[in-house]
Amino acid sequence: MLRSTLTSVMQRLMSPEERTANTFKRRALKHLWGVRHPVVARALRGKVFIIYTMGRVGTVSLRDAIQRTAPYTHIGVTHYLTETGLRDREAFRGNPDRRSRRIREFLHDSNDSTVPHLITLVRDPVARDVSSVAKEAQVGRYSGTEGSPSNASDLQRAFFSNGPKTSLGWMDEELGAFLGMNPYAVPFSHEQGYQIRDLDRGRLLILKLSSLSRSFSAAMQQFVGCSFADPLVRNNSSDGHMGDVNRAFSKALTLSNDLLDTYYNSRFARHFFTESEREQMRSRWAKPS
User: Which of 89, 18, 5, 10 is nearest to 54 (CA)?
Assistant: First the structure.
């Protein structure tokens, strides 16, 4: 009772920005009381997980993998934290992104001693854009053409209308800009399939979706000091009521050599994927010779 009263008083004394950041922190630190395994509890003490990544790269699978090992852990999930990114996202969705703004305020609180552990994922950029178009159509929220795509041809037109801006630009224009770091400054370890970067406050783990099943446990051991369960594939755009349409769209889509060059000769693709991987991804989407 006394604790509840003191918490209520402190909340009233806080500014709106402090209350926003504190709300996220309180939820994120639930694992201090909720995680039952003592090794995991010790490893996670004082750490906060934030999945900060572009959409359609395996976010749900990653979140679920963490919660399978630490089932009571609150995990922050966001795709945009820069003010420009948040404004564009809120304008597109038509409502405020309060969750991301709470995370943003928490990360801006330089007086907080909690250690943020941010995780981001990278994926074949064409596959990510295909999944993004399919998912937006599936949930009935689409901006590429008039109306909502309802067949594979509509989805192909939507794909070419959107272009590769998000998949190729998000790492530096969003993540790099918000964190004040160059995501391409340190060579990516293709053999490991992940990379850990120290930040001014906290740490950043970069995972590659294609290597997730073999690298996730080792990456988390190095990142936070304990092993985690392997991730399971979730939130697949081939599922749901438009699954057949989405599969037909993905199977039929072919890209010109110029567009394939734009994707796979980009700084993003050359940094995170080997030449062999890029050739393999390119062949998947190339027009038959």
Answer: 89
Burial code (b: 16+ CB inside 10 Å, e: under 16) for 139-169 equals eeebebeeebbeebebbbebbeebebebbbe
Name 206's bridge partners: 120, 195
Largest pairwise CA distance in the chain = 74
- pTM of the model as a whole: 0.85
- Residue 287 DSSP label: P
Domain that holds residue 228: 15-285
Q: Determine the Cα–Cα distance for residues 257 and 253; give it in Å rounded to an integer.
A: 13
Task: Report yes or no on 6 lying in a domain.
Answer: no
Lateral strand order in the sheet of 203-208: 76-78, 47-52, 115-122, 203-208, 194-198
pLDDT digits (tens, 9 = 90+) for 129-181: 999 998 877 665 554 444 555 688 888 998 999 889 899 999 999 999 999 99
Which tokens is 106 given?
């928490």
Euclidean distance between CA atoms 96 and 105, whole angstroms: 15
Domain count, the chain: 1
Q: In the numeric block, which tokens belong to residue 192?
A: 């490991």
Distance CA 280, CA 256 (A): 16
Give a yes or no: residue 5 inside a domain. no
